[in-house]
């Protein structure tokens, strides 16, 4: 009989609850299970795991759906024969920014999970929540609260410098302020605790309120990134008594305590199994990819997302800086670019009817790095980073041109996208050093020619990592690290057995000079586009090439 310790990681994501178990011996995944909210818990009537309200802006999820999903998931895992007694530690992650409001007296109910009971969790916890539906990250109904917060702390830039992000509608401070302004009348009297979705989930395993971890806590517009404590100015601007309602944030590798008796009696967990702080899904994914100092992970999907490992953060008006989930003195940043794969597919299809990726790769091979000075911006949809829309093409003299050959256009698109990723990463503090890597993931990461341009533009070797679920895996890794973190073992050391990324492209020596100067031109041209858009909004029509039909 195998007796090596197991590590369990959960992910409470928007559409499903997932779990992964890794074997401590070699970090192999030995079990995974999931529960789909819409189809397996139809009584909650969610679509994609959420309720979109009549205003089209408010988006919530039923708290008891998450609890019931946990009942269902653990039963599935038990049914599949998982030996819970071997689990030495568990941790988890959840969609970021969502908030759970515990009713006064809920702590006592939670503590009852420390005595044996065999009732389903959702029956035991059914009266614990002041709001039956929790606001989640897709909510964008708090523009007023965002303006109020920025005004109260001295502006968007000041807020970003303190908390790592300017005010965002989905960030928890703004959600809490809205609940206070529009929610139940005696909210402050009746609310005992506010959790993030991550710390709510940890609380169930603990049978007590689990602390918010510093990394997920950075997605609230409330945490001072440098002191790693709540910012008094942000607390005061959001709600009275907020510090009491949030509890103190904890480092991401903290052990919160042992798993409570409920799980010991009902599922056979060991009473020695430890609960390690739960975090946000993006920080957990950084852990799953085992990012290191100086690395950047580029996920090439419908939207392109960048995770940066930062030693020195430089929060800006775009993107988000969080405390790093695996290294207590470091930071991570998150940047989202809306125009990713859909735009690449549109330009691919321009080459030939029904276009192929082979044709796209051939166009990259047929055109030189730097594209003879041509630079393109392809914001088919309103971009997030930077906030601009439209297609703009420039020749080597920075003159705007209306057309390129199909092959030039492919290169202009790919170089433009990657120059933008590098420019905005550097603005947040990305500073590659010897040994730094670009880790490419997502659909487009199988295209070698594309990855060669990525390596050339970043002047850094590119690796690919194909993990089926970096978030859940990161949670299992964090559980393992939590057990040894106190004795000074680094995260990296504790998971050194994990899957190694494959080297797929090294930068061409001549590319450094080409893209070094191109990056400066790209920044200037981007600024010009943004200025034109501002003037356009003020009445002067911008000279924008008409958008192609999607
Ligand atoms: C990050 C964000 C999303 C959610 C999705 O800021 O809002 O990535 O974490 O689960």
How would you summarize this macromolecular structure in one to three sentences?
Helix 5 packs across helix 6 (156-163) and helix 17 (406-427) packs across helix 18. Helices cover 38% and strands 20% of the residues.
Would you kindly provide a written description of the structure presented here, covering whatever features stand out?
This protein is α+β, with helices and mostly antiparallel strands. It folds into three domains: 6-277, ATPase, nucleotide binding domain (Nucleotidyltransferase, domain 5), CATH 3.30.420.40; 289-338 and 428-505, 2-Layer Sandwich (Nucleotidyltransferase, domain 5), CATH 3.30.420.40; 341-427 and 509-537, 2-Layer Sandwich (Nucleotidyltransferase, domain 5), CATH 3.30.420. The protein contains 21 helices and 24 strands. Strands 1, 2, 3, 6, 12, 13 and 14 form a seven-stranded mixed sheet that branches. α5 packs across α6, α16 crosses α18 and α17 packs across α18. Mean pLDDT is 94; it is low at 540-550. The structure holds D-xylulose. Residues 13-14, 95-97, 137, 170, 219, 280-282 line the site of D-xylulose.
Which keywords apply here?
globular; Nucleotidyltransferase, domain 5; seven-stranded mixed β-sheet; 3 domains; alpha+beta; 550 residues; 21 helices; binds D-xylulose; 38% helix; 20% strand
């Amino acid at each position: 009989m195998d007796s090596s310790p197991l590590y369990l990681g959960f992910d409470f994501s928007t559409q499903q609850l997932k779990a992964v178990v890794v074997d401590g011996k070699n970090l192999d995944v030995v079990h995974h299970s999931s529960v789909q909210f819409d189809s397996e818990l139809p009584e909650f009537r969610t679509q994609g795991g959420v309720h979109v309200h009549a205003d089209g802006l408010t988006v919530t999820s039923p708290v008891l759906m998450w609890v019931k999903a946990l009942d269902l998931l653990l039963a599935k895992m038990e049914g599949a024969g998982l030996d819970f007694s071997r689990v030495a530690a568990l941790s988890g992650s959840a969609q970021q920014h969502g908030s759970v409001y515990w009713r006064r007296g809920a702590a006592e109910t939670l503590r009852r999970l420390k005595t044996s009971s065999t009732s389903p969790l959702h029956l035991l916890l059914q009266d614990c929540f002041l709001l039956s539906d929790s606001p989640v990250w897709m909510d964008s109904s708090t523009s007023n609260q965002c303006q109020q917060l920025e005004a109260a702390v001295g502006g968007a830039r000041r807020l970003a410098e303190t908390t790592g992000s300017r005010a965002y509608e989905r960030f928890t401070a703004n959600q809490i302020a809205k609940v206070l302004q529009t929610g139940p009348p005696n909210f402050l009297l009746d609310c005992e605790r506010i959790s993030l979705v991550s710390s709510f989930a940890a609380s169930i395993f603990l049978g007590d309120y689990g602390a918010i971890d510093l990394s997920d806590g950075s997605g609230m517009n409330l945490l001072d990134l440098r002191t790693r404590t709540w910012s008094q100015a942000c607390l005061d601007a959001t709600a009275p008594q907020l510090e009491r309602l949030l509890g103190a944030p904890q480092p991401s590798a903290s052990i919160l305590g042992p798993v409570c008796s409920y799980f010991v009696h009902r599922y056979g967990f060991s009473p020695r199994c430890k609960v390690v702080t739960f975090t946000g899904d993006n920080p957990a994914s950084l852990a799953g990819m085992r990012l290191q100092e100086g690395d950047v992970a580029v996920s090439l999907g419908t939207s392109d997302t960048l995770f940066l490992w930062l030693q020195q953060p430089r929060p800006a008006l775009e993107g988000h800086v969080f405390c790093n989930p695996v290294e207590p003195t470091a930071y991570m940043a998150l940047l989202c670019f809306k125009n990713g794969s859909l735009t690449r597919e549109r330009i691919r299809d321009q080459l030939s009817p029904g276009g192929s990726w082979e044709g796209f790769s051939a166009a990259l091979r047929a055109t030189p790095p730097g594209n003879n000075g041509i630079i393109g911006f392809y914001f088919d949809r309103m971009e997030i980073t930077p906030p601009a829309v439209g297609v703009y093409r420039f020749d080597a003299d920075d003159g705007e041109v209306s057309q390129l050959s199909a092959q030039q256009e492919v290169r202009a698109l790919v170089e433009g996208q990657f120059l933008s990723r590098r420019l905005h990463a550097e603005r947040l503090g990305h500073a590659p050093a010897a040994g730094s890597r670009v880790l490419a993931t997502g659909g487009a990461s199988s295209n070698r020619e594309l990855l060669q341009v990525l390596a050339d533009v970043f002047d850094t070797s590119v690796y690919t990592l194909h993990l089926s679920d970096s978030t859940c895996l990161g949670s299992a890794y964090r559980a393992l690290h939590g057990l040894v973190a106190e004795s000074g073992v680094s995260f990296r050391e504790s998971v050194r057995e994990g899957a190694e990324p494959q080297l797929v492209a090294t930068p061409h020596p001549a590319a450094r000079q080409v893209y070094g100067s191109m990056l400066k031109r790209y920044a200037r041209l981007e600024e010009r586009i943004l200025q034109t858009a501002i003037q356009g909004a003020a009445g002067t029509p911008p000279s924008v090439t008409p958008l192609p039909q999607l």
